[in-house]
Amino acid sequence: MNALIQDLRYALRQLRKNPGFSLVVVLTLALGLGANVTIFSIVNGIILRKLPVPQPRQIAVLAAQQQGAPLGLYSLSYPELLDIRAQNDAFSDLFAYQVALEGISADNKADHFLAAYVTGNYFSGLRLRPALGRLFFPGEGEKPGSESLIVIGYSYWQKQFGTSPAVIGKQVLVNGKPATIIGVGPKGFQGTAFAADLDAYLPLSMAATDDPDMWTARSDRRFNVLGRLKSGFTLSEAQTSISVIVDRLAQQYPTTEKGITVSVISEPLSHPIPLPGNIVAIAAGLFLFLAVLVLLLAGVNVANLFLVRATAQESEMAVRAALGAGRGRLIRQVLSGSMLLAMLGAAGGIALGTWATQWISGLARLAAIVPLSLDIGLDAHVVVYAIVTALCTGALVGLWPALRVARANVNESLREGGRSGSAGVRSYQVRGILVAAQVSGSLMLLIVAGLFVRSLQNALHTYVGFEPDHVLNVVLDPKEVGYDEARTNNFYQQLRNRVSALPGVQSTALAYSVPMGNYGDATGVTIEGHLVPKGEQPPIIIFNVIDPDYFQTMKIPLLRGRNFTDADSPAALQVAVVNQTMAERFWPGEDSIGKRFRTAETGDTFWQVVGVAQNGKYGALFEDQQPFFYLPLTQHFEHMRALEIRTSVPPGSLMLPVQRTISELDRGLPIFSLRTMEDSLSGANGFMIFRIAAVLASCIGAMGLLLALVGVYGVVAFAASRRTREIGIRMALGASRGQVLKLALRQGIWTVMAGAGLGLLAAFGMSRGVANLLMGVSATDPLTFVTATVLLIAVALCAGYIPARRAMKLDPMVALRYE
After folding, report:
1. What's the rounded Cα separation, in Å, for the pair 726 and 723?
2. I want to staple 596 with a disulfide (CB 3.0 to 4.6 A). Which of 264, 353, 528, 605 is the partner?
3. Contact indicator for 715, 748 with CB cutoff of 8 Å
4. How far out from the chain centre does Cα 249 lie?
5. Extended strands (E) in 553-690
6. With 0-12 CB in 10 A as exposed, 13-18 as middle and 19+ as buried, what is 363?
7. Beta strands in 85-207 (DSSP E)
8. Per-residue pLDDT averaged across 799-806, rounded?
9. Is the pLDDT of residue 409 over 60?
């Protein structure tokens, strides 16, 4: 211990003695470790963080899949849940939930809240205890007509009720209907819906009030199902058990169960959606690899710096060895310095990573319209990762210089007295190899960054099927305060008339959902005259419900047929407008006008196609072209609607007038969302993912470029310093400045070119892993490869030119006296 303390004191003296060296090393490591802390924090928050429940490793997700279903349809119906519950032998509990946006009125104040309709065994299956009152009992609320009860979330209890114990037994209104608060959820538990901070939990019977078919409809797949594995069961064994049950159900109920598969996925790996082979996990792995590569490049730079210092310390270490210091002690002294600097770099990296994750988390929250609990900040896992990574980095960057010092010939070092020798030449050669590897890695990072930036540019210029500029969206749900159908229609009509009269409003329209918003609807579709292939279910197609002015307000081209009109009343022919993809997929080579289809929601009622609209983006910006259709609001009633307002003035300037108008009609009706269409497109389903990916990749690429610049500068400067006497002799014998410049730059140029060649090969090899994460750009895009290569070579040569230019200005007499 005494020796260790002495070594640390020696390392501290070296830091104070060389503050410039120490600062460069700490900043370099802080950049590399900061990138790693940022990426690992995101991976940890999205994939690795477990539910705050007892024995979280036992929790698994049952994700149903149907071939051809749009993104996000991984739920089960209530009858399917009951069948799997009764027949499985791998889970001790199977429980389910459905997230919904509802309205609550308490103390004469209305608000909307994010709730989950849950099975009675939801909390018991998670083995949770209440913070106050009680939770639901197993089986409670799973029968029609059950009592209306509420368990509120802990954070909602703090925010809305001030942690008052009097909340238990309190009578409130949920969607205008009375309910009783019976308990408060445990502190720290925010629900099982990824990134959602749930405000309350409601029994299933309250969800079935307006939809009693929920109890029996096998095709009404709305519930997210989780289970707790029995002790001793693995995921693979549970998968086998569930697959047998699913096959049995397919034989028993072929009409609804054929073609449905159910995957058993560990709960953390189900984020953000329970998809086997989740592309999010692939993207996380890619960015973590890039961050580790940045750290390796930073480590190469630091290793080069330590090699320089080791060369300068040879005489000192030779004296120590001559005085009796063993090799182990010499190695420990050098390593103690590198480890101390690495820990200081870790502190800087944690600070940078904290700032970066706060920025990303803030961006995600701004883009959301529901409360989020996306916790990507520091926790014990991130801190341990940072410290272990720093220690490993410190050991690796200090090991080679330490071994070099320990192996040095004492007599030779003392005899040379610090003059250039064979060790210096070997050190220079090693540094050249390291810098070539550094240039290679930096070029790969630059190319990946360029691909993601190009992907963002393409995303920003993608035609989304409508014109998003100068559009303001206001989303409301009068059901939250108990409106019935007639009162809801009357409210929207009055609201639309008043908003249309506001200065600067060009047109208005009503629709159920906003394109690429936070919610939507989808249903199974059966085409008249088309038989569903044996063993498959009808395709799931997403749709919207709109009024006749929607296409004009959103500027969506109608290619054939007609728009909806006021004559499309509930008693008239049921009509629909389909997009190009749906028309071409289901009626290829035919005129789709007049064709008919049924939906799972309307049973035997057919919808007749009266128009074909331009393709667009509906659920997410990154989706491929897919079938889509529109139904008229007059024939398909929806409580929740978005009033879309096209303006001739900046849409943000109309927010206050629109709020006042809503308040005049109903002061107690909460506004679910009020934002411009461009802000809506900045959400998770729009540009946000591309922006974050481009920013992260660009920062990583910039770090790689900076580290390559420092590395090339260092190797040329070191070469020039080691050849100072040679340069003096050459200049004394008549060498021109141009010849000296060429001599100083030659090794740097070869190092850069060799590294660039290896970097291009590495980037081509890595393109396969990047291809699925890009939009509108090839993973081997020639423009990106050429631009990144030219930029790196130009910057690297500029970095090498500075010390080379200084070398050609040397005074020959000074150079000859250098050693």
Report:
1. 5
2. 528
3. yes
4. 36
5. 558-561, 575-579, 596-599, 606-613, 628-632, 641-647, 673-676
6. middle
7. 91-106, 109-118, 132-133, 149-152, 171-174, 177-184, 200-203
8. 70
9. no
